Amino acid sequence: MTRIISPTPRPPSFLGRFVPARLRAVWFDALSLLMALGDRRTPPLARLIALAALIYAVSPIDLLPDSIPVLGVGDDLLIVPALLAFAARSLPSAVLAEARFKADRFAGHRRWLVPAILSGVLLIGLGVAYLLIKGIGAVFGG
Questions:
Q1: CA distance 80 to 86
Q2: Residue 49: domain span
Q3: Do 66 and 119 have their domain in common?
Q4: How many structural domains comprise the chain?
Q5: Residue 17 DSSP one-character state
Q6: Most exposed among 4, 37, 99, 107, judged by the fewest C-beta atoms under 10 Å?
Q7: Are 44 and 85 in contact (CB under 8 A)?
Q8: In Å, how far are 4, 25, 40, 97, 101 from 94, measured between CA atoms?
Q9: Burial code of 121-132, b = ≥16 C-beta within 10 A, e = fewer?
Q10: Do 54 and 116 share a domain, yes or no?
């Protein structure tokens, strides 16, 4: 029987200080599953469930619309991790252990990735807001 390798403890990164431990664990599991999808030993059911989780996460169609203040985001926070956990449980233990090792190695080398993505999204959001304000000012301001 193959032993599952748990991630090595590291000091929290810049973003890790602000993100709850459970969310970091879900992120690590999702990254592990992504690493496992490239393995030919991964069963088709796990691939299908992971694809369903990805589609549900990016789809504008939800069980509860995101316009409902807490519940709209809450269904995403429950369904997507549940699908990812179900997909991870359908993996053979050797594939899961190897994928967790790869994810741990990747996460250790890419500490700058999440802050860089968040910074990029923030800059794009500010640019779009500026263009919207400028456009609205041109329409109504004359």
A1: 10
A2: 15-110
A3: no
A4: 2
A5: G
A6: 4
A7: no
A8: 8, 20, 12, 5, 11
A9: eeeeeeeeeeee
A10: no
- With H, G, I as helix, E, B as strand and everything else as coil, classify residue 14: coil
Distance CA 94, CA 17 (A): 31
If DSSP codes are grouped into helix, strand and coil, which group holds residue 7? Answer: coil
Asked if residue 19 belongs to a domain, the reply is yes
For residues 15 and 81, the answer to whether their CB atoms sit within 8 Å is: no
Per-residue pLDDT tens over the stretch 11-67: 555 555 555 776 677 777 788 888 888 889 999 998 899 888 888 877 777 777 777
Structure tokens at 51: 């694809």
CA 31, 37, 39, 44 torsion: positive or negative?
positive
Same domain, 94 and 119: no
* Residues 39/98, Cβ–Cβ less than 8 Å: yes
